[in-house]
Amino acid sequence: MGAARAYRLRSRSANTRRAYASYRHQFPNWCWGRGLELLAALSEAVATDLASLARAGRADSTVTRHLAAITWQHHQEGLPPPSVRDTVEPTPSTS
Description:
Helices cover 61% and strands 0% of the residues. It is mainly α. The protein has one domain: DNA polymerase, domain 1, CATH 1.10.150.
């Protein structure tokens, strides 16, 4: 298992690994601040995080890279990655 993991780590460029490492610090803080699981992250939580980045004016390429980093981290841990393709951001209840 160690050899396979080392190969997967080397399969990404140094710049990609740095970008992923940067976001791996941001997403956990976002999850912990909301009491959400980091691994395996709920698809809705990831979609909400990505939407908040987009609303904050982040470039589409940045939002896409953040999703790629989350997906990659799940793969590294042997977990199925969250799928945000068909998720809808939860709307607050108005009671």
